[in-house]
Design goal:
The chain has about 300 residues and is an alpha/beta fold. It is built from nine helices and 13 strands. About 35% of the residues are buried.
């Protein structure tokens, strides 16, 4: 998490992440007393291969002999995987529309807080935590490999908030195959978005296929608040779509109906998700409620899978 002055303020800063951590520790203990056993099966790390250096890698990971062969551009590191009880790969919407909102609260703030909550829940269980981000229409996929620890959660939050340290994800024939190709083992996969795009039905079908081998569930960000605009005197309003770059003129009545239409659309998204056997957790912008609801959902699901 950035501690120096930034041109862009983070959606979740270090002190807020610490508050999330403390709340999770208190709530998680209520779920895990007498139920949670060893945090790790076995000990140590497994060597999984070599890769290019990424932001956040330790100096001790650098393979200096291999790096000399590339003239240190890029540097090559040895990649190790720590044995843990589970892997969580969070798939988060980073499209331009999530940077929009109202009263200084963008939709992305709720997504970032959800990432932080899931990540700190993984820290509590000492599970591996990774991140995949996507742009409009589930394009421009980028990722961070899963690792264990709070520093990894901070790294993933910085990646989501500032676009740092992400590597492009190689596309396969379908979205489900692309996501599955990134996961080395069976993983818990929360997909976080408001799903305000035309291809939502196709995406749910692909996620349903991924759910056959992984534990996929939907975190639906209730973004209707972003369309609850103050009354305007003008009879016609020009609206700008940040995703497509197109403008549209709409009536004052149509503008007032945007919030209710958004809720109706998201109700249909939730129905589509359930039709493909995907659990849905709807999250708003209230910080405390988001943290409590998300941490309890993860704890219950995590312990049920581990049982």
């Amino acid at each position: 998490m950035r501690t120096r002055e930034q041109d862009v303020e983070p959606f979740v800063n270090l002190s807020e992440l610490t508050e999330i951590e403390l709340l999770i520790m208190r709530r998680m203990r209520e779920f895990t007393i007498g139920e949670h056993r060893s945090l790790f099966h076995g000990s140590g790390f497994d060597f999984v291969g070599l890769r290019d250096w990424q932001a956040g890698d330790r100096m001790s990971q650098i393979d200096w002999a291999q790096s000399t062969l590339t003239n240190f551009s890029p540097m090559v590191v040895r990649d190790f995987e720590q044995r843990s009880t589970a892997t969580i790969i969070t798939v988060a919407d980073a499209s331009l529309s999530t940077r929009c909102g109202i009263d200084g609260i963008p939709i992305a703030a709720a997504i970032a807080r959800t990432i932080g909550t899931i990540g700190m829940s993984a820290v509590f269980f000492q599970d591996m935590f990774g991140l995949i981000t996507f742009g409009a229409k589930f394009e421009e996929l980028s990722a961070i490999r899963p690792r264990v620890g709070k520093n990894q959660v901070i790294h993933c939050l910085d990646a989501y908030q500032f676009g740092e340290g992400l590597l492009p994800l190689k596309r396969a024939e379908s979205l489900s195959m692309t996501l599955a190709g990134f996961m080395r083992k069976t993983s818990m996969v929360p997909v976080i978005s408001d799903f305000l795009f035309d291809e939502a039905a196709d995406v749910m079908r692909e996620l349903g296929q991924l759910n056959n081998t992984h534990d996929v569930f939907i975190v639906l960000i209730d973004s209707a608040f972003a369309f609850e605009l103050p009354p305007v005197s003008a009879g016609w309003i020009e609206a700008f779509d940040v995703e497509t770059g197109r403008s549209k003129v709409m009536s004052r009545r149509a503008l007032r109906a945007l919030s209710s239409k958004t809720r109706a659309w998201q109700d249909e998204v939730a129905r589509l998700a359930k039709a493909h056997d995907l659990d849905v957790l709807r999250i708003g912008v209230d910080e405390l409620q988001t943290t409590i609801a998300m941490s309890e959902f993860i704890a219950e699901r995590r312990l049920r899978k581990a049982a």
